[in-house]
Design a protein that fits this description.
Helix content: 25-40%
Structural class: alpha+beta
Radius of gyration: 33 Å
Number of domains: 3
Number of helices: 21
Shape: elongated
Strand content: 15-25%
Largest sheet: 12 strands, antiparallel
Number of strands: 16
Oligomer: single chain
C-alpha cells in the first residue's frame, strides 16, 4: 500500500522499509554496478518473469510508453527484454552482447519463427522491431498459436491476430488498426480498470478467454479472492481498496511469485505492506533510487521492469505532478553556541548602593534550542552590557556576547523528485525579543539576579527591532557529521545569499549549488548559520547597552520548484 506523507513537510525515508525487511532476515536482489542497472539488473528481473508465462504482457505495457524519440539505449532495452522473456537468450549471454548484436539476434529469431525475411526485419526501427517481437512472444506465451502456426504467419498476420483478440476483448473495431503493436498489447492488459485484468493474466490466475467472459467487477472480485487466499490481509481490507491500489497490490504479488523472490508459503505470511516493503528493498538495491517510497505499488512493479518514467500525471504523487509546488522543510539538525566576552571591572558600583555587579557571573540562557521540527524555538543574536545594563548606569564595560544558531534541513523530499526545476529557496522564521538573554548577579549586600531586556538601544531602553537582529552565514565545515565543541566558522563568500524580508533570506543560489550542482562546483558547506551582527565579540567592547538577541520560531526552508509537463512523446492515447 502506498503511504502518503502528511502534508508537504516531510516524506518517509526508504530506510524505513529497507531496515524493516533486512531486520526480518530478508535480502533484496540486485546488481551493484550502477552503470548496468537498466541493462543488467532490470533484465535479470525480466528473465525471472519469463517463468510467469504471460509476463511479456507486463513488459509490453512498459513499451507502450516508450516512443521512437527516446535514446537508442532505452529502446534497445525493450529488445533485450523480448529476448529474455521469449527465452531466446539468457541473461549471461545478453551481458556479453552489444546492442547491435541483440538487435540482430531478435531479427534472427523473428526470421526463423515467422514468414517474413531478414530484409523486412532489418528495415524496422528499434521500436517497431521490439513491437513485432512482443507480438511473437505474446502469441507463444499465451498459447494463442503454436510454433508451427506462427511459422506460417508474417508480422502483419501476427498483428491482425492480436487485433482480433483485442477486438473480442474490448468490442472495438476498425480503430484498432491505427494503434501500434505495443499499444495493442497495452489494451490486452485492461487499462480501463487500472490493469486488474493484466494482473490476473500475467499472474496466470485467469486465461484470456476466461477474462473475456468476465465483467470488470467480476475481475476485481477475482483478484480480491486471489489476494485473500495468497496473503495475510483479509477480505475487508482488499475490498476497501480502489481499483488502482488493488491492481498495484496484485502486481506486487505477481512480481514476488514470478521472480521467485518469495515462495507461496512465505507470501501467505505477508501483508500488502510487507510485500510493498520487500519490493522497495529489492528495487533500492537494483536501481539505487531514493524516491521509491513516493511511488505507487504499480509504479514499483513497473520500476522492476525498467520503467524510468511514470506516464500519467494522475498516477503521480502530488508533489511530482506537473506545475509549481512549494515544499516546506523543517530543521532536522541544530547546533547552538554562545561566545561571551567578560570584562574585569568587578565589582562595579551602580545605582544599587552598597551592591556590586559580578560581570564574570552573568547568566546566559541555558536552553538555546528546544523542541524540533515545527515546534523548534531557538535563540540567536548579540548584545552587550555597560554598567549594570539599565538606563543611566555607569559607563564601565561589563560583558558582551554573540549567540550562534546553525541549522540543517532534510532536503530528501526535493532531492528525490525525478524531474524539476528550482524556482526559489527562502529561509524564513518568526522573530521576537528573547525572553532572556543575560542576567547580572549582584554580590554585595545580598544575592540578586537581575534579568535584562534583550532588545534595547544603546542607552538600555527597550527598543523594537523592525529589521531583526541576525546575519546569515554559510558554515565552512561539516558540523553535521562531526559536531564541534566550539563555535562554527563560516565562508567569506555568501554564495549569493541576500535578505528578502525582515526575517527571511533568499538562499536560492546556495541551495541550487548544493542540490543541483554544475561542473566544477565549489564547496558550499553544510546547513545555514544565523548569528549576531556584529559577528564576533571582538567587535563588541561593551561601551553601550545595545542588545539584539531574538527568539526564533516557525523556522522553515521554503523550496519552490516547477515540474515540467510530461513530454508528449511519452503519452500513449489508446482510445
Amino acid at each position: 500500500m502506498k503511504r502518503e506523507a502528511d502534508g508537504v513537510v516531510s516524506v518517509t525515508s526508504d530506510r524505513t522499509a529497507i531496515d524493516l525487511i533486512k531486520d526480518s532476515g530478508s535480502r533484496g536482489r540486485g546488481e551493484d554496478n550502477m552503470s548496468v542497472v537498466v541493462k543488467k539488473a532490470v533484465s535479470k528481473r525480466l528473465l525471472r518473469l519469463g517463468a510467469c508465462g504471460c509476463a511479456v504482457l507486463l513488459a509490453s505495457l512498459l513499451a507502450t510508453s516508450q516512443a521512437a524519440a527516446e535514446p537508442p539505449d532505452a529502446r534497445m532495452s525493450l529488445i533485450r527484454g523480448t529476448l529474455l522473456i521469449g527465452k531466446f537468450r539468457t541473461q549471461r549471454e545478453l551481458n556479453a552482447m552489444s546492442w547491435e548484436d541483440q538487435r540482430n539476434t531478435l531479427i534472427t529469431e523473428l526470421v526463423a519463427r515467422t514468414r517474413d525475411d531478414v530484409r523486412f526485419y532489418q528495415g524496422l526501427n528499434d521500436t517497431d522491431l521490439a513491437g513485432a517481437g512482443s507480438l511473437l512472444v505474446y502469441l507463444r506465451e499465451t498459447s494463442s498459436r503454436t510454433d508451427d502456426q506462427i511459422k506460417t504467419m508474417s508480422a502483419d498476420d501476427m498483428r491482425n491476430t492480436v487485433i482480433v483478440e483485442v477486438g473480442v476483448q474490448t468490442g472495438r473495431g476498425r480503430d484498432l488498426q491505427a494503434l501500434s503493436n505495443l499499444q495493442l498489447i497495452h489494451l490486452v492488459m485492461g487499462p480501463e480498470r487500472s490493469f486488474i485484468r493484466g494482473v490476473l493474466l500475467v499472474g496466470r490466475f485467469r486465461t484470456q478467454r476466461e477474462l473475456n467472459a468476465m465483467s470488470g467487477e467480476d475481475q476485481r472480485n477475482t483478484l480480491i479472492t486471489e489476494l485473500v487466499g495468497r496473503t495475510r490481509d483479509n477480505l475487508a481490507f482488499y475490498q476497501g481498496l480502489n481499483d488502482r491500489d488493488l491492481a498495484g497490490t496484485g502486481a506486487l504479488l505477481v512480481y514476488l511469485r514470478g521472480t521467485g523472490s518469495r515462495t507461496d508459503e512465505q507470501i501467505k505470511t505477508m501483508s500488502a505492506d510487507d510485500m510493498r516493503n520487500t519490493v522497495i528493498v529489492e528495487m533500492h538495491e537494483q536501481v539505487h533510487r531514493t524516491d521509491l517510497q513516493g511511488l505507487t505499488n504499480m509504479q514499483l512493479a513497473l520500476t522492476a521492469l525498467g520503467s524510468h518514467e511514470v506516464r500519467s500525471p494522475d498516477n503521480l504523487p502530488e508533489l511530482q505532478r506537473p506545475g509549481q509546488h512549494t515544499l516546506v522543510l523543517r530543521a532536522d539538525r541544530v547546533f547552538t553556541w554562545h561566545t561571551v566576552r567578560r570584562f574585569s571591572d568587578v565589582p562595579v558600583l551602580g545605582p544599587f548602593i552598597g551592591r556590586g555587579i559580578d560581570c564574570s557571573h552573568g547568566w546566559l540562557p541555558q536552553g538555546l534550542a528546544v523542541g524540533s521540527g515545527e515546534s523548534l524555538i531557538a535563540v540567536a543574536g548579540w548584545g552587550q552590557v555597560e554598567g549594570n545594563g539599565h538606563p543611566g548606569a555607569s559607563t564601565d564595560p561589563c560583558m558582551s556576547w554573540v549567540s550562534q544558531l546553525t541549522l540543517n534541513f532534510d532536503t530528501r523530499p526535493f532531492d528525490t523528485l525525478p524531474r524539476k526545476t528550482l524556482d526559489r529557496a527562502v529561509l524564513a522564521y518568526r522573530e521576537q525579543a528573547a525572553s532572556e538573554c543575560v542576567a547580572l548577579v549582584y554580590t554585595q549586600g545580598g544575592f540578586l539576579v537581575d534579568p535584562l531586556p534583550c532588545w534595547t538601544d544603546g542607552d538600555a531602553n527597550p527598543e523594537f527591532k523592525p529589521n531583526g537582529c541576525l546575519s546569515l552565514r554559510v558554515p565552512n565545515e561539516d558540523w553535521v557529521r562531526s559536531p564541534p565543541n566550539r563555535a562554527i566558522g563560516w565562508f567569506d563568500s555568501t554564495f549569493g545569499v541576500g535578505k528578502s524580508g525582515p526575517s527571511s533570506w533568499d538562499v536560492t543560489g546556495l541551495f541550487r549549488g548544493r542540490h543541483m550542482p554544475g561542473l566544477g562546483q565549489p564547496d558550499m558547506g553544510v546547513g545555514y548559520m544565523l548569528t549576531g551582527d556584529p559577528l564576533t565579540v571582538g567587535n563588541l567592547s561593551a561601551e553601550d547597552n545595545t542588545r539584539c538577541t531574538s527568539a526564533l520560531s516557525d523556522i522553515r526552508l521554503e523550496v519552490t520548484y516547477t515540474v515540467p509537463p510530461i513530454p508528449a512523446e511519452y503519452d500513449v492515447d489508446v482510445h
